[in-house]
Amino acid sequence: METENNKGHFIESIIRDDIANNKNKGKITTRFPPEPNGYLHIGHAKSICLNFNMAGKFNGKCNLRFDDSNPAKEKQVYIDSIQSTVNWLGFEFGSPYYASDYFDRLYTFALELIKKDKAYVCSLTPDEIREYRGTLTEPGKNSPFRDRTVEENLDLFSRMKAGEFEEGLHTLRAKIDMASPNINLRDPIIYRVKKASHPRTGNKWCIYPMYDFTHSLSDALEGITHSLCSLEFEDHRPLYDWILDVLDTPCHPQQIEFARLNINYTVLSKRKLQRLVEEGHVDGWDDPRLPTLEGIRRRGYTPESIRKFCELIGVSRKESRVDMGLLESCLRDDLNERAPRVMAVLRPLKIIIENYPEGMTETLEAANHPQKEEMGKRPITFSREIYIEQDDFMEDPPKKFFRLGPGREVRLRYAYLVTCKEVVKDENGNVTELICTYDPATKGGNTPDGRKVKGTLHWVNANDCLDAAVRLYDRLFKDENPEQDKQDFIENLNPASLEELKDCKLEKSLEQVLPEKVYQFERMGYFCLDSKDSTPDHPVFNRTVTLKDTWAKLSG
RNA sequence: UGGGGCGUCGUCAAGCGGUAAGACACAGGGUUUUGAUCCCUGCAUCCAGAGGUUCGAAUCCUCUCGCCCCAGCCA
What we know:
Elements: H1 10-20, E1 29-32, H2 42-57, E2 61-66, H3 76-89, E3 97-98, H4 103-115, E4 119-122, H5 126-133, H6 150-161, E5 171-174, E6 189-193, E7 207-209, H7 211-221, E8 226-230, H8 237-246, E9 254-258, H9 270-278, H10 293-299, H11 303-313, H12 324-338, E10 341-342, E11 344-345, E12 348-353, E13 362-367, E14 377-382, E15 385-389, E16 409-412, E17 417-425, E18 431-438, E19 456-457, E20 460-461, E21 465-473, E22 498-507, E23 518-521, E24 525-529, E25 540-545, H13 550-555
Parallel strand pairs: 1-2, 2-3, 8-9, 10-23, 12-18, 16-19, 21-25
Antiparallel strand pairs: 4-5, 5-6, 6-7, 11-22, 12-15, 13-14, 15-20, 16-17, 17-18, 21-22, 23-24, 24-25
Helix pairs in contact: 2-11, 7-8, 11-12
This protein binds one RNA strand through helix 5, strand 6, helix 7, helix 12 and strand 19.
């Protein structure tokens, strides 16, 4: 799949060089460090693939580590969901790691910092801290508590840990430089009091380490060699390095930043996704319209297609917005290979074949995949009454329309050639039924006389089919970039992102299928059983993705 | 008008001083019992702009322009 001399993206180049120079003894260890405060989305998939693939490619290891240092936002459900999602994507991580498992060691590191006079307990209020921090263009000023003695700091910090102080009264701050042009270096807070119960450590702690402190040290403790993160952490790298330089740590991982993923016609920020769910614009975190991995999975996306997508988009430092069409293309590519073909009529129009014997039923053979004989064949039944797609008939068709019309002949896939003899309408002039004739010589859809038929339609036997509901999904937003400032992205929601068809007729073989198994409804797209709302009595199918549709493009 | 980044085809993205890969999209054509798949073909004389260095620059230098990130006791 990849050429031998392909050097890969810039991170891969760095890793190759490091291995060539025997840095870290030639070992590679990466990590995927989600905070368990939400569900994973396709943007996380990029990071997951990057980290696991780099480790895999160079005989290394990738840790799944929960960055759980803020109990106010984190929950066990997210921890569970994240693990199963990473596994579903196809990556093995053994047992997960938790930053919370390092709380004791992190506390000891904080003590070390204090003893080295590189940290102090600050008793400014939150407002004062902000004030003292300065602005983007003005330097900050030193906290009046900056010169507390080591003893005093040790005492105060241990009392913070003991729970003697309420939230907001004291913080532990790194003593760096209040005049630094990099705001992250203006004595960043590294510990705060938070009297919250933690999903894993319960009430053991009432002080919790901040991200920069936790992350750099967790990386070092795990022997991470390459700490890959997104661009917005670039400004944090000096702090990451400062912490690891000042403290006596097992190693000093290299932080490398890359651009996070953006995709058009959707949003990929936890906050925005959360709003969509909480305000009820979608039906939960696993709504098939959402770019969450649980949503995408329910929709019918395969892990393989997501991994392929992540490979194709590349890794760079340029902020970009990838075309949703590429994701869909990866999906179709994969589904085209593995999805069995089947026939289903979504908007039924009844056809009566007047010269076909009443009460007769024939069993015909249909291929499960036109290009893959090994996928076998299945029986389908045919009778006097069948359904075809409403869109496959036009009373007054344009010349380029080669489906059914009055007097026209088409092929019913795997069955017979039929000709439309009569159009039956109701009192409002709506077409309700078609009377056709069939040519017995064309069984199987063959034309022994060699005559050409342009159109081949899918159909379902009216006397031997399954009733089902089918959900047609479209993009969630109308605009390519729903996050444009000025307007609220909610206003950009596509009102037609979900259309539910309730009177669909499916071929009988679909009777006992499992969710996540995707089928191609020939000429209609790829579909799978919904994992949540489907019941044996009332099956519900989701449209995973449409087929490429040249005709739709031509006909507007 | 503080600091840190980024600007190569419509969208991603290779390229690392030797004369613009690839993918998606798009446009033509062929095959086809899915207007699907598959198969051909085309698609940046040009790399944000302007100067400069060089035999030679998207690649080096200078300046200009544009966009993104940072002032949570979030990560």
